[in-house]
Fold this protein.
Amino acid sequence: EVQLVESGGGLVQPGGSLRLSCATSGFTFDDAVMSWVRQAPGKGLDWVSAISWDGGSTYYAESMKGRFTISRDNAKNTLYLQMNNLKSEDTAVYYCNSNYNYWGQGIQVTVSS
């Protein structure tokens, strides 16, 4: 059974930081290109970041560059997203997914004072 389980979300003040994790099982994680995608309230899906199978290449949406860092630990089958200098517009449900079209259930990130 394929599982992707996000954790690390919550409520944070503007300018704060959070680190999301996505623990996976049931597929060959170290072959997969992994991504983070988010959905703000009342809006569609918004691609955030992606990372190659070996972590050697990373990609970010323009508004996340310099603030977010994607990484992975293939030994732990886990994907991460370090989010710094968070803004209210980063409020969304964050999903991890793989290029095999496997998705996590999502986790809420709320940036508010």
Notes: The beta strands are 3-7, 10-12, 18-25, 34-39, 45-51, 58-60, 68-73, 78-83, 92-98, 107-111. The chain has a mean pLDDT of 96.
